[in-house]
Write a structure and sequence with these properties.
Layout lengths: L7 H14 L11 H13 L4 E7 L2 H18 L6 E5 L8 H6 L3 H4 L9 E4 L13 H19 L4 E6 L15 H12 L2 E5 L13 H4 L6 E4 L11 E6 H4 L19 H16 L2 H16 L8 E7 L2 E6 L11 H18 L5 E3 L5 E4 L7 H22 L1
Parallel strand pairs: 2-3, 2-4, 4-5, 5-6
Antiparallel strand pairs: 1-7, 6-7, 8-9, 9-11, 10-11
Helix pairs in contact: 1-10, 2-10, 6-7, 11-13, 12-13
Bound molecules: pyridoxal-5'-phosphate (PLP).
C-alpha cells in the first residue's frame, strides 16, 4: 500500500470512468489506450534502456513471464538455455515456475517435483558471517560462489539470474558494495540475462521508482507488481529492453505467452492514477527525506536484548531477533514458532501495528510502512514494537 489507504475515492473514480469507457479489451495482438499510456509511463520510469512492457496480473505471473521470456529469447537466437539461478530463502511467487525459483524449502517440498534446473546461491545475509570479514571480502565470497555455480551448471545452459535488489525473505538483506556490479559482470561474461525482481522494492520502497537505479544493477529484465497500483488493483509487469524484444520482432515470431487479464483496462487506469498520485504527492521525495529518520528511530530498539540486527534501506527494514545477543545464537524452531506465531504476530496486530513476524530464515520482524509515513508514524511503530519486544524478551527469560 505504497500511497496508503486514503486515495480510494480518487482511484475509484478513475476505475469507474474506465468502466464506462471500456471495461475490458484483450491485450493480445491488440492494445488499448490505458495499457499504452501505462507502458509509456513505465518505460519513462524504468532505469537505463528498459522500455518494453509486458503486463500481467501480479508478481508470480511477472516472475513466470520473465523466465519464459528469457528462455524464448535465447531460443530465438539459436541457443538452448533454460536454467535459472536465484538465492536461498528468496520468495518469488507461487505458480510452478516462480515457486521453483523460490529458495524457501518448506514452500517447495509439498509440490515436488518442481520445474527442473533452478540453482540457488547464497543471499546477502551478513549478520551470521565471521565478524572479521570485511564487506569487500564478503562480496568476493558471494561472487565466487555465483561464478562456481554458473560454471558447474554449464554457462551455456543458464537462461537467467533472478534476484531482488533488497531480499525480503530472511529480512531485508541489502547488497554489499560491489555485489550487483559483480553479478552483472558474470552475467555479461556468460551471456546470461539478469532479472531484478522488484515486486517489493519497486515503486518507492527503497526511495526510487526502481531499486535497480539505487544499486546500479542494470538488469535486462525487471518484474514488478504490488506498488505499481499501490495494491489498489491486481496488476504487474515485466519491463525489458529493445535488445531483448528484438529477436521476437523478426520473421513471424512472437512471445508465445499471454494472460487474459494482463494490462486489464481498469487495472491499467488504476495504476496510471497511482503513478499520478505518486508524482503529485511527492511520494519518492518523502521516502528519501525521511529514510534516515526512520532508521534512526528504529535504532532505538537496538538496545533490547532480543534484537540482534537492524538492516534494510528506504522504508523497508527488518529486526532480527536472537536468543543471545553476544553469540548471535538464534532460536530453535519450536521457540521461534512460539515467539512469532504464539505471541508476536497476534500482539502486534492487536495493538495496531501491521507488520510481519517471519521465520522463513532466522526470526525477523519486518517493517514496510506506507510511503506517506513520517516521524509521527515512526514513533508510533517504535513505541508499539518496543513494548511488545520487551514483553517477548521477558517471556523468553
Ligand atoms: N516476487 C517477490 C519478490 C515477492 O515478494 C512476491 C510476493 O510477495 C512475488 C514475487 C509474488 O507476487 P504475487 O503474490 O503478487 O504473486
Amino acid at each position: 500500500m505504497q500511497i496508503g489507504y486514503s486515495f480510494g475515492d480518487e482511484i475509484g473514480e478513475a476505475a469507474a470512468e474506465q468502466m464506462r469507457e471500456l471495461p475490458f479489451y484483450t491485450n493480445w495482438s491488440y492494445a488499448h489506450p490505458r495499457a499504452l499510456e501505462l507502458a509509456g509511463e513505465l518505460a519513462s520510469l524504468a532505469p537505463g534502456d528498459l522500455n518494453r512492457v509486458f503486463f500481467v496480473s501480479g508478481g508470480s505471473e511477472a516472475v513466470e513471464t520473465a523466465w519464459k521470456l528469457a528462455r524464448q529469447y535465447h531460443a530465438a537466437r539459436g541457443e538452448r538455455r533454460w536454467k535459472a539461478i536465484s538465492r536461498r530463502l528468496a520468495y518469488h511467487g507461487t505458480t510452478m515456475g516462480a515457486l521453483s525459483i523460490n529458495g524457501v524449502t518448506p514452500l517447495r517440498t509439498p509440490f515436488e517435483p518442481l520445474v527442473p534446473d533452478v540453482l540457488h546461491v547464497r543471499n546477502t545475509n551478513r549478520y551470521h558471517r565471521p565478524p572479521e570479514e570485511s564487506e569487500e571480502q564478503f562480496t568476493a565470497f558471494l561472487l565466487d560462489e555465483l561464478e562456481q555455480t554458473i560454471l558447474h551448471a554449464g554457462p551455456e545452459t543458464v537462461a537467467m539470474v533472478i534476484m531482488e535488489p533488497v531480499q525480503n525473505s530472511g529480512g531485508a538483506f541489502t547488497p554489499p558494495a560491489g555485489y550487483f556490479q559483480g553479478v552483472r559482470a558474470l552475467c555479461d561474461e556468460h551471456g546470461i540475462l539478469l532479472c531484478a525482481d522488484e515486486v517489493i522494492t519497486g515503486f518507492g520502497r527503497i526511495g526510487d521508482w526502481f531499486a535497480s537505479s539505487r544499486y546500479d544493477i542494470r538488469p535486462d529484465l525487471i518484474t514488478c507488481a504490488k506498488g505499481l497500483s499501490s495494491a489498489y488493483g491486481a496488476i504487474g509487469a515485466v519491463v525489458a529492453s529493445d535488445r531483448l524484444v528484438e529477436p521476437f520482432l523478426q520473421d513471424k515470431r512472437a512471445f508465445m505467452h499471454g494472460i487474459t487479464f494482463g494490462g486489464h483496462p481498469v487495472m491499467a487506469a488504476i495504476a496510471l492514477k497511482n503513478i499520478e498520485i505518486f508524482k503529485r504527492e511527492r511520494i519518492l521525495e518523502n521516502v528519501r527525506a525521511n529514510e534516515d529518520a526512520f532508521r534512526d528511530t528504529l535504532a532505538q530498539l537496538a538496545d533490547l536484548p532480543i534484537v540482534g540486527d537492524l538492516r534494510g534501506a528506504g522504508y523497508f527494514w527488518a529486526l532480527e531477533l536472537v536468543k543471545d545477543k553476544e553469540t548471535r545464537e538464534t532460536f530453535t524452531d519450536e521457540e521461534s514458532e512460539d515467539l512469532l506465531r504464539g505471541f508476536l504476530s497476534a500482539q502486534l496486530f492487536e495493538r495496531g501495528l501491521i507488520c510481519r513476524a517471519d521465520d522463513r530464515g532466522d526470526p525477523v520482524v519486518q517493517l514496510s510502512p506506507p510511503l506517506i509515513a513520517g516521524q509521527q508514524e515512526f514513533d508510533e511503530i517504535v513505541g508499539t514494537l518496543g513494548a511488545v519486544l520487551a514483553e517477548a524478551g521477558e517471556r523468553i527469560g
